[in-house]
Design brief:
This protein is an alpha+beta fold. 36% of the residues lie in helices and 26% in strands. It has 3 helices and 4 strands. A hairpin with a 2-residue loop joins strand 2 and strand 3. Helix 1 runs antiparallel to helix 3.
Length: 87
């Protein structure tokens, strides 16, 4: 398992559109991808779980990846969050 903490920079946090971009970017990896926010773990490949987590701008989240391509999945997840997911 590999993990990284990253700060959400999106002005509106991970609402529908950026959540869709994020999930689309990590769903094709075979590894499990999880976001830990305020002590709760959510499946980062589920747009509903990501949106319902209520992740706002400035929040620090932890991304955890476990599986055959875990490092690649983590690198992509961090890149997506740090890029602002197109916003």
């Amino acid at each position: 398992m590999v993990t990284a903490k990253v700060k959400v920079v999106n002005p509106q946090g991970l609402h529908m559109r950026p959540a869709h971009v994020f999930v689309g970017g990590v769903k094709n990896f075979s590894s499990d991808v999880t976001i830990i926010f305020k002590g709760a773990s959510v499946n980062a490949k589920s747009i509903m779980q990501v949106m319902l987590a209520g992740i706002t701008q400035g929040s620090e989240i932890e991304v955890c990846c476990e599986g055959a391509d875990e490092q690649e999945a983590l690198d992509e997840a961090v890149r997506l969050i740090e890029s602002g997911l197109g916003e």
